[in-house]
Amino acid sequence: MSAAGAALSQDNAIEGGIILDALAASGVEYVVSVPDITTSQGLLWPLTKDGRFRLVRVCKEDEGVSICGALSFCGKRALLLMQYTGLLDSLNALRAAGCDYRLPICMMVGLLEKEPGVPPRQSKRFGVRIVEPMLETMGIPHDLFELHPDGARIRPAIDRAYAESWPTALLIGRRM
Amino acid sequence: MMRRDLCFGILARHISDEIVVPVYQAAQEWRAAKPDYALTFYAIGAMGQASSCALGLALGRPDKRVVVLDGDGSLLMNLGSLVSIANQAPANLVHFVCENGTYEANGGHPIPGRDRVSFAGFARAAGYPKTYEIAELGDFEAHIAGLLREPGPIFIDLKLEPGLPPPQDYAFIHGAAARETFRAALQRG
Questions:
Q1: Min CA distance, B86 vs chain A (Å)?
Q2: Interval A28-67: pLDDT, tens
Q3: B4-184 in CATH: which number?
Q4: Architecture field, domain A16-172
Q5: What are the distances in angstroms from CA B102 to CA A172, B23, B158, B160?
């Protein structure tokens, strides 16, 4: 499912509060992050003040893959919040922990400079265009979140990742 | 300089309820030193990630001590994790690095900066409140019990001789059975 074709305005754009509520409803306790300008103002800064989550700031995104994977052994749900460049940099860790070991690595990925309303594959940005094909090559499900109603799909995606013990990628398609 | 197998033999006598996170060659040798220890987390996955896995386990299970047996080449791939660990400051994390100066699993080539870099210095600069270097087996034996009880995060650089690779069983280390054994042991307590 994609929101990219739907009308996009500031009025119906997805907001950080919706995402935080969905994460809390999903049972996510830990958010591991390297900041991303796409989600910085609307999501990560509010998260720093939200007592429902423990924020684990890391230096590099592949650390987050391993931390989220290890937390799953402890029965703890976690989200790795990062930019798509961090996802690309973390592919080997994701291949190992997520795909080879079948661990539920839940990733929320900001698509830096993706044009609002434009499907990622049609972006003018090469890095944005290759995100979905790369995830599909790895067999990792993904979904695009741009509009207010899209928030309803966050919890099912996370629940599915933990039920199937397999990664998932929640792509944030607009700057918040 | 110490032999890693002798160090691990001593360490094994002091480990009873801790989570142990060993990397590649250290994992093979740890398995030989303490076979069937169910709280061994072999699921490192990618090289360099042991310290980050250990941080996740330490955060998720603050009631248990987490002992990571890192490699020098491995840690060089993930130096930022030292900063991330120090920033979270898990009191239950004990971080050993097995410094033998070589990529033992990949042909014995020297690590960059061999004999020049200071791993304890890295950890100290990253913010670990306590760092140590141990080069003599007698010192290791004398101090290991206290080190395992110290509030973390602490970092111990073990100065080791380059050695012959121990028997390798990557199928076991990467296998689902090892992960499920660990998961079940962790759930039991």
A1: 11
A2: 999 999 999 999 999 999 999 999 999 999 999 999 999 9
A3: 3.40.50.970
A4: 3-Layer(aba) Sandwich (3.40)
A5: 42, 14, 14, 10
Flag whether residue B61 sits within 8 Å of chain A, measured between CB atoms. Answer: yes
Q: Comparing C-alpha atoms, which of B127, B183, B186, B60 is closest to residue A54?
A: B60
Instruction: Extract the runs of DSSP E, i.e. beta strands, from chain B.
Output: 19-22, 66-71, 93-99, 102-103, 109-110, 130-134, 154-159
Contacts of A71 in chain B (CB under 8 A): 56-57, 59-60
d(CA B97, CA B153): 13
Report domain extents, chain A: 16-172
ipTM of the complex: 0.96
Q: How far apart are CA A32 and CA A35, in angstroms?
A: 10
Tokens of A2: 């994609």
* Nearest chain B alpha carbon to A98: B45
